[in-house]
Write a structure and sequence with these properties.
This protein is an alpha/beta fold and 570 residues long. It is elongated.
């Protein structure tokens, strides 16, 4: 080996070893100076808000529904009295407002705090005036996984800009239930390998940006028809099925080095037969399965302890104690910190919790904070934030992601037969009049344009107007993700499509929404799936129609084509 390379490697190893010693000594020294109550405080990441400039009645309604006290006075008192380990900002505000509160709360704490946030598709999930990247279902269609790494890195960079330390992402649930009301488009789809690879690439990108990631929702929330914010879902699968599907991405992402995992509020009888037992509160799942069987040694974070799935069955205080005893390290968004701290203190006194185990978990938390450098950071200057967030590179990446996701279902030759066409009609169902999608097509083609509402319109009148047209482009907007609402496809829309088929017209449909809605289409239909109605998705779909772009995407879910005869014949 070249002597220069040997010297560099030796120097690098010495520097790395030196850094590890420094890091470990800071965490250990900090732990030694903590009181018992301060150690307990490190377990908590409490809910905070920065949206207090909203109307008082709207703010009161949000707080009441969540049952969380997120007032500045309450959060301040929890920091002063318990030295809570961190905060998670809920409800939408602006980056500037959030940073203002963050800087203030940090100034109060004796020990460095950290900030958690849900930024699954970027900061816009929780903040106004920020970029909204594609949701995971859209990303699931992309075939170039290197783009997922780039997205993770960009989301991580933006988190760093506003001071978010822990992004509660990626979601690695395999969404194999089309009626799932809470995961759905937050999942990369129903293929476990696709979900896994894309999650790992996003995780690696965020890590390279200096953000701690958290894979969720263990052991898998994809096959539920109940939202755990409101009730406790039950998963009846046996262990073999769970290991083959739900647990598969967790095994892989653990092997890839994910630093944190969130435990879900699910009842899984095959692992815990106790009535209404949540997986997040079960040592059989958190300790025995996740830590011992799967070998995960990183941070374990509960899902929100304010969620009805657990609060409907366990009282605050006892709830947080059960979560700790199950094996969780971080107790997220508890309703009553005072009751929770009291319960843990009593458990320490009566021997249900040992001081050595508490020290082990707190040291794990402090070491993670140190790796992120939260003990050395300065207050954030809000004046620079918007310019740092809204960069040309970030917007170029967003555009590329939507372009690569566009998926063509059916015979692509039909597109070349439709455009150009002398007697072409363009129908927009829902959305704002003359959307970006429509504007681009009208700019490049002479055609008749019709805009009708998404829910109900005079189908017979529209059909009459389309009689003289040879080809029809239909763009469907205002779609939703719920099977119970036909994914936003109204009876009028389905009747129009049925008539076009019967008349033998050449037509292409562009869906700006749920790919599960393909079940209401015929397998011979030509459909462009854009997944979302974002302006970049509209632009990309239009250019695929015009032949300026190729559709490289692949459906992340199964297209069943189980056309509902009742709706078809309405």
């Amino acid at each position: 080996m070249d002597s220069r390379i040997s010297s560099i490697l030796l120097l690098a190893s010495l520097v790395f070893s030196s850094q590890k010693i420094i890091h470990a000594s800071w965490a250990e020294e900090t732990l030694q100076h903590m009181t018992l109550r301060e150690k307990i405080g490190q377990l908590f990441v409490i809910a905070a808000a920065s949206c207090f400039d909203q109307p008082e009645e709207a703010l009161a309604s949000m707080m009441f529904k969540s049952r969380l006290n997120m007032s500045q006075e309450y959060v301040t008192s929890m920091i002063n009295e318990y030295q809570v380990g961190g905060i998670i900002f809920l409800f939408k505000s602006t980056p500037e407002k959030q940073i203002e509160f963050m800087n203030y709360y940090y100034s109060l704490s004796t020990y460095p705090m950290w900030t958690f946030q849900d930024c699954e598709w970027g900061l816009s999930m929780r903040l106004y005036d920020t970029m909204r990247f594609p949701k995971n279902m859209t990303l699931g269609a992309i075939q170039d996984d290197d783009l997922l790494y780039e997205l993770g890195k960009e989301i991580g960079r933006q988190c760093k800009v506003i001071g978010v330390d822990v992004n509660l992402a990626p979601v690695i649930d395999v969404n194999n239930n089309a009626a799932n009301p809470v995961i759905f488009d937050r999942s990369f789809g129903e293929d476990k390998n696709n979900v896994t690879e894309k999650a790992i690439q996003m995780m690696l990108g965020m890590h390279d940006a200096g953000i701690l990631t958290c894979a969720k929702h263990f052991p898998g929330h994809g096959d539920t028809a109940v939202d755990s914010h409101f009730a406790l879902p039950i998963i009846y699968h046996d262990k073999l099925r769970l290991h083959e599907i739900e647990l598969f991405p967790f095994k892989k992402i653990i092997a890839a080095g994910v630093p944190a995992i969130m435990t879900a509020h699910l009842h899984i009888p095959v692992y815990d037969v106790r009535a209404n037992s949540a997986s997040s509160l079960s040592s059989a799942l958190v300790t025995d399965l996740l830590q011992k069987e799967l070998g995960f040694a990183g941070l374990i974070i509960t899902d929100g302890l304010c969620m009805d799935a657990v609060t409907n069955h366990v009282q605050p205080g006892e709830l947080e104690l059960q979560a700790y005893l199950a094996g969780n390290d971080i107790l997220l968004a508890p309703i009553d910190v005072v009751a929770a701290v009291g319960a843990i203190e009593r458990a320490l006194r009566d021997g249900r919790i040992t001081l050595s185990e508490l020290d082990r978990r707190v040291l794990k938390i402090l070491r993670a904070k140190e790796r992120l450098g939260v003990h050395n950071r300065d207050p954030i200057d809000v004046r620079k934030v918007q310019a740092q967030l809204h960069t040309p590179d970030a917007y170029a990446l967003k555009k590329r992601l939507f372009q690569e996701a566009i998926t063509l279902v059916g015979n692509g030759n039909t597109l070349r037969e439709i455009l150009p066409c002398k007697k072409l009609a363009l129908v927009q169902i829902g959305g704002v009049p003359e959307s970006i999608f429509v504007q681009i097509i009208l700019k490049n083609n002479s055609c008749s344009f019709f805009h009708v509402p998404s829910q109900t319109f005079n189908c017979a009148h529209l059909e009459q107007q389309l009689t003289s047209c040879d080809s029809v482009i239909v763009g469907i907007f205002d779609m939703n993700k719920f099977a119970a609402k036909n994914y936003g496809l109204s009876n009028s829309t389905l009747k129009l499509l049925s008539t076009l088929r019967e008349q033998g017209k050449k037509f292409v449909v562009t869906l700006f929404g749920n790919p599960y809605s393909l079940k209401y289409f015929n397998q011979n239909d030509v459909v462009i799936v854009a997944y979302e109605d974002d302006s970049d998705a509209q632009e990309a779909a239009a250019h695929v129609l015009l032949g300026n772009l190729e559709a490289h995407g692949k459906l992340p879910v199964t297209a069943s084509y189980e056309l509902d005869e009742r709706l078809k014949n309405t």
